[in-house]
Batch of 3 targets.
Target 1
Amino acid sequence: MLIFSGSSNKPLAQKVAKYFGKEVSPLEIFTFPDGEKRVTLGERAVGETVILVQSTNPPVDANYMELFLMVDALKRSGAEFVKLLMPYMGYQRQDHIFRDGEGVSLEIMAKIIEAVGVSEVFAFDVHSIKIPEIFTIPTHNLSALPIFAEKIKESFSGQEPILVSPDMGGIRRIKEISEMLNIPFTTIVKDRDLNTGNICDSKLNGEVAGKQALMIDDMMSTGETMIKAADLLLENGATGVFAFATHAILSGIASQKLQESKIEKVFVTDTVEIPDENLFPKLEIVSISKIAADAILE
Amino acid sequence: MIDAAKRGSASEVILITPYFGYSRQDRKEMARVPISSAVVASLMEYVGADRILTLDIHAEQEEGFIQHPWDNIYATYAFIPAIKKKKLENLVIVSPDKGGVPRATFYQGLLKASEMAIVYKERDISANNKSEARAMVGDVRGKNALIVDDLIGDGGTVAHAANHLREKGAKRIFACATHGLFSGDALTKISNSALEKVIVTDSVNHRAEVLKHPKIEIVSIAPLMAEAIRRIETGDSISSLIVG
């Protein structure tokens, strides 16, 4: 078995490799002056089962292209199976037609992933549980919730916190972690303008007064959802607000806004590599590497 | 876009890609590399393109990467009037590498040029994209030269070839290339080279500094592409558009 990694999340690849007692195999990605990339494997892959680690977070298209080229190189070099660990799956929010005239971008990515020769996909907390159905190859939707549950047990023992889903789309997720921890949950109902993607209105579906509110979501991009939800929770009497999100996309000035927000602490995982300049004091990162390695071993 | 068109019930999607990115990575030039151009071509097909139309694809064999029809037309016809206008006598057509010889021969025939020359380029693959003109076949002394190529990337190939031709005694030196990418410091290399003029097409959208570069001339391939599209629609011959 060999482990290769694209350029999107090398630290995670190294952590996963460690669970297998391996090193990440060398792979060169050279970029020509016009922006085209050239991938060269640094190790013989004939007959091997390869674990390829590549998240498709921003720059999404560049990371996808790199992925396709790596898989093609592996297959043409004789790799038998390519197991793709794509902790964050780009385009996952475009999993159906929202408005007339659109394509289904995620389905296109899935088609190409299969066409280039990936044999199995491992992803984390995809936006909708229907996503694995888009693929015809085995696709596993792993979850970071067990790690968050552990973290909550350890940090909020003896207290009576309440779990909060910042939108109705997270209802399945919030129920799941609520059962794991035996802690009650509530949800926020938010409306999104389909043309601009902006949130226009939100209200709380329950009681949070006098409690620590723990928000759980699949991803954090601009941070706006969490920040607005925190304000709403505090207005409704929550004593403190904490945020948990699997994927830390942190686009634009999200890090700065989160640091300046009323959220006390932000917990994320390493499905996406966070550049140093986006780290902030309130941020704590937990690793999904063990869950990923265990799932691949199975 | 192809997916959106297909889901919008388009009966046929004809993909017009004048410049086809990744077309230079058309083979395994060393072990353990992808055939990136094949990846791109086949993904267009998987997504739903029913037909592809390109302009001067790097290697015509790439048409075999997909099962659907792939038409490739030449920008040569757009270039010929622009070259003839320069009234170059005693003209030698120069291929800047071994692979471009058929293209140079084609130009030679159309322009009724007296001779052809080849500049040998040695490209060290392991050193990535560094190329240098080394030697040439043919005689250019006292003659006007026209270098023909499919694309200008960082300008290294064409600038080196031009300087080599100057060393060998060529008088006026021109170049024409279908796709003018002008990546990296290409514009500086062209400014500092022995090239008098570089003619490219509008197959890619040029940035302002390319448009106002004193040595760069742009001819439009729009009429040629339009004619090809018309023929695809009517079922007329595309190949007659290619061979003239």
Target 2
Amino acid sequence: MKWRRVRAITIKEALQIVRDPRSLMIALLIPVLQMFLLGYGISLDVKHLPLCIYDQDNTTQSHDLLHRFSASPYFDTRPGLHNYAEVGRGLDTGNCRLVIVIPTGFSKGLADNGGSTVQALLDATDTNTASLAANYARAVIAGYSAQVQLDAIQSRGGQMQTVTPVEVRARVWFNEDLISRNFIIPGVVAMVMAIVGSQLSSLTIAREWERGTMELLISTPVQPMELMLGKLLPYFAVGMLDACICLALAMFWFDVPFRGTLIALFFTTGLFLLVVLCIGYYVSVSIRSQVGASQVALILTMLPTTLLSGFSFPIDQMPPVVQGVTYLISGRYYVTLLKALFLKGAPWSELAAPIACLTVYAAVMVVLAARSFHKTLD
Amino acid sequence: MTDATSSGNTAPQIVVENLVKRFGDFVAVNQVSFSVNRGEIMGFLGPNGAGKSTLLRVLCGLLHPNAGRAIVAGIDVAQDPEAVRRRIGYMSQKFSLYNDMSVVENLRFFGGVYGVSRCDIQDRLHFAVDMAGLNGREDSLVGTLAGGWKQRLALGAAILHKPAILFLDEPTSGVDPSSRRRFWELIHSLGEDGVSVLVSTHYMDEAEYCHRIALINHGKLIALGTPQELKRHALDGHLLELSGERIGDAIATLDQSAGMHNVAMFGSTLHALVDDAELRMPEFQAQLTAAGYASITIRRIEPSLEDSFVQLVGGKK
Amino acid sequence: MPTATATAASTLIEVGSLEKQFGAVTAVRGISFSVRSGEIFGLVGPDGAGKTTTTRMLAGVMRPDAGSIVIDGVNVLEQPELAKRHVSYMPQRFGLYEDLTVYENIRFYADLFEVNRKVWQERAGTMLAAADMTPFLKRLAGQLSGGMKQKLGLICSLVHTPRVLLLDEPTTGVDPLSRREFWQILYTLRSEGVAMVLSTAYLDEAERCDRLALMNAGQIMFCDTPTALKARMPGAMLEILGTSPRRLRNAVSAMPGVLGVLLVGTGVHVHIDDPQRAVQIQEMLTAQDIPVHSLQTVSPSVEDLFIALLDQDIGKAPVP
């Protein structure tokens, strides 16, 4: 292993990156674009849900309940409905995503039996939204319920501490599906790293084949390991630079709270970057066309990271088989670590397991990639 | 098959006047003028990047000239390129045959593209297959054919519609010498039928097969004439070959000799361009023997086209 | 100049019974030859003859299926990486990085071969000056002309002073002037003792080599000096020019002592078994009233020799 050769290849690769507008665009423009597009574009928060109410009771109590719904920022209360036909029409046309029907004996039920039921009709064509809507509705109703109980107790002269509606916490605790931007941005960072890392490195060997320079390279004393190291070093540097940009954007532009240590952050990012770079390199060696290599690399890194890393869909909601598959996705560990570092501020003990897995993954990929390249034309 | 020279039609089929083609700042074709007669085989010789392909494409109506005129089969290429394309046959560098289609399928395709009528197509197909020597192999995939066969087939495809003018762009790249000779026989028979053929190539020795050749370099026409004319008149002097033991060491001495234009190594001999062979041969013989060189042979040799080319381009050492 | 009995100069390249197959196609079959230091050895033949495959096997970028290659005492099959240190390879597609400057390209290859910095800078400087390329030091390689790219490719391969140089069709499509300059560089290297194997599809380049191997269909048909090659072709070559080449051809083919006739643009080239035949042919043509502009003896071209040898090999009659 001669460092002089490694350095020669590193310099050459760096010059080529800088002088190739396509690489520069991938390296610098795309990460920023992705961050903004997805950061602002994706919001799995549900707000301003069209809500329609069919109040059959029309009493003070039912109006109270209605009031709570109108006051909630998650609902956009539409003009009241007057019969079931209108309910049906409202749901069919999409005018209402959620219909609350307060039955005729509502207030009487509260007074007589101490309880009443309320009907909620959901448009579940989008199950995500529907379950969120149902949960919001339950929260509102629970809050109303608590108030009713409190009033009942106080009216009987009892003393009780006020039960404050635990709106925000309720949301976090019993609905893990609720993903806000704070949860999205770390995932976006992972996705951006996956794209950038794999795209840049997937072009490198394929480009040498396409341009015809590979043949001469093979005829020199350069060793496969020197070649890989020399080629991946500049891409690693670019990747870490991108990571800095994305993380800075996350923390200072999108105000995502960061509760972990920077060391841990850069260490894990470096590991993940190494993995995707090696995947890209391996693809580049196997597929001698630049276009083909970049497509395959994208499929192997971005898709799993987007779909199976826990970024967009929670892993524990997936079928067991698929959950097993996610253990093979490096993105899973990185996203877990990012979430832990950003939002939980988890201690090293909690980070140890995913870091260990990512390290093993990286080691395996490095060996695979290094050994994939053979100095021969056929 | 009629002999072209007896047909009586002597108007040139291709006339090019001060043609210029630019790509941005780069002048690919620079004031080129020439004409090609009926049944004449004209060769365009020059290195890669000299502008031959660009010139051919302008004449085919594929590129629009920036200045000058090009009249092909009586039609101005700038005015009506589409009409030009109907009257010409074009064989491109890589032959442009479809490797995953059979011989016959390829011919039918090109026949259709060139608008060969239904009644003619069968005859023309047979003619092309015959010419290529592919009788019995009509259903073979073109991808399985060797270079020489593909070349002849491509030629057949280019003349299905019996064009009066044929353009060949580097037709013999990647073809073995026997196939190449056979190919040129076909070209000659086409010439005798009155077809004008324009060939572009970077192989200097292919010039011999043409009636006239044009030497092109950096977009300019630097010479035009028969191969013999170019070889003899372009060279300003006579070419000598000197051989003997360690003859290479003598370059320095000979370079200074009277009558010497230039002298250079060639294999294990020296090639020397002198003003007068008869005069200088004995002089050099004496000079070298006196300097101690043994077994010296000096003879006059025919200049090659490459020698002429170098001379014309300004061959300083 | 190297003489026929070469014992003084050492043999730097020794190739024995090389074979290489690609699927069903045998690209190289039983190729053997040797090259001494200070010798330019040509692999001459049409496309598909196996020249590139042979050169690639010598360069160590492709493994032969059978045979042996020894370069400068190193067995290339057993120790390919060691062999590569003393060999320089210039493939057909160069190896220049178009987005790097002339200087950066040279430095890259110098570093790969670990050449001392001062040494390569000086050497490159000299070579660039000799090639008239000093003003282009900072020019991107992609912006150089074809001939200059060729020269740069050569300089890059020479920067580590190899003892063996392998060139695969280095002058294809290059203008004759640059080709001439290129060969001058090769001759200079020859005088420095470098052993060179050069492959070319230009049959006439064969004459520029010290020794050559005429290749066809993966085999060597002939291996000797250009002079010996010409001696192989007995008789003489006539050039007859006239207005009707076809008539000439038909008439001459029937004449006695004619071994082959080739139609050219302005006449025919006739291979006769004896130089005396020329007079007879002249007389017969006059008798048949066929107009002749000129009739003279010319040297056979290497292509003529190639075809003649090919026909001899296969035992066919020459192309009529």
Target 3
Amino acid sequence: MSTPNIPMVGTPSQSGGQPTGEPVRLSVEQASYAYHTKGNTAPMFTLAATSFEARQREIVSILGPNASGKSTLLKLIAGSLEPLSGRVELEGFEISRLNPRTRAQRIAMVHQESPLLFPTRAGEYVLQGRHPYSRMMRFETQNDIQIAENALAQVGATHLRDRWMHEISGGEKQRVILARALAQQPILLLLDEPTLHLDIGAQVELLERLRQLALENRYTVIVVTHELSLAAEFADQVVLMHNGKCLRVGTPAEVYRRDLLEQVFEAPLDVDIGPEGRPRVHIRGTKTGRPAPILMQDKLF
Amino acid sequence: MKALTLSRLLWICGSLLAVLFVVVVVALKVGAVPISIADLALNLGRVILGRASQVPSEYRFVVFDLRLPRIFLAMLVGGALSVSGTSFQALLRNPLADPYVLGVSSGGAVGAIAGLIFAPQIPLVAPLAAFLGAIATIAAVYFLGRRKGQLDSTTLLLAGIISASFLSAVISFLVTTLAGQNLRGIVFWLMGDLSTPLPDALHWVLLAGLIVGVGAIYTTAADLNVITAGEREAIHLGVDVTRVKLVVYVSASLLTGLAVSVSGAIGYVGLLVPHAMRMLFGSDYRVLIPSSLIGGAIALVAADTLARTVMKPTELPVGAVTAILGAPFFIYLLRRRLP
């Protein structure tokens, strides 16, 4: 596949409530990666050089279909992978070079929930967010407890504090997991498909909460998702990924072009602009109610 | 929010130590020759005050030469097995892990027997070879228990059970073909047994190994809490997962190897005790490790006392007692996990 006409990324352009005046916090410069099954063989998957910047109070969505390289890019940002070339920097420090504790004090990751080995109460779970700050044997201080309580309050989960993690609903669990990340007091908050197991009500609630947290706590928030409509709704900046390449970086209005999205997501789509200047995506139907075929177009990438 | 405090930890350990004291007193008292508590107190007092010569010689023999060393050994072995059980549960992400079920005890036994047969001249060959046997077995079980690069809890248990039966066959082979002398002793030892008196020096080696092993595992207690809540997430909470796993893996194998080299394969202590402690005090590893240590001592002293007294004057191997109590508990845990 040829890749003509991909805009190079500089400062994000003006539109919506984008925090352009804020300082740059995360900078991904020409970062690439390759997975090998065995040494000396052709890589199984490569992430081509990718660049973008994210500022304080900004929500960036890394968007793309499955196997597009979203998760690899997220791992580079989280520092769990070291880029093959290029740099991934947080406030000027190369993330993969930070020691794990320091990194955990600055970057928090919200995964899709993984099973707990033993029953744990939500409050204890959130307290684990203080782990990067504790010495080997030290017990949690009153300060740690206060921070954990505040984190629960910020996600509206104070009432869940003494409940068992395995007894609460998916949406509630997601909030508690988010609270643990907040208890880390990070400056960069990463979320990997956070809406995957949530119903639509819980999805909207989570995303509104992220917007609020980005503003109040001055987080930079990076959300990996394949949910087109949700990313359009909450992201200040979208990084569109396809087949291990970064195709576009820009505001949703800039990136959400029908022909581009149809080819990336391989589905017949309609894009229009909503009242707040944000794009909205629909499945393009025919009169029979079935999705229409994808219109044949020039290859865009 | 309730967080663990030092006073809560000390309170828990203190209560368990009090229980341990009571169990030890009972263990000293009952047996083929019953001894009254008043006599026990009197004679213990004499020893503590440095008037050991006033202790009647039959007391000295029964209490100080027979029962006390055996109780001491039961405490060390019980503590070692419980702490290694609770560690393997975290390391392998499997609540049913136990050195016996995983075949680690059998691996240690193969090591110890092979050491005694092939290199009896090396000092401390049994504990050393048992440690090597244990560490090799857990590595094998770990790799056999993976499917598609992930630890699979059922496959892991099967791998452990199959390794255990394979290693038992190796032991039978070694014993029948190579160890001509003292066959009954070895068979008894295989079932788990505390009745063979040890040289004094070995007690101290054992105690030192226990302190080192448990101490090393305890330094990772807070990390283990995070790891049991998700290994992937633990990395993002600043835990050096590889280092923690290595420390726990080596230390837990050391504890199992030490226990097996002196007492044979005593099963289910490493499963029963940590779960009982979790039910009582919660899953925080900062509490779980010391409480399993003391709880394991309590459990094995109690089990050994039963083994000495239920069929008296005939003694059962203590491993038979723990298996009779432990196997049903294992089934209970297994059933409870099923959806």
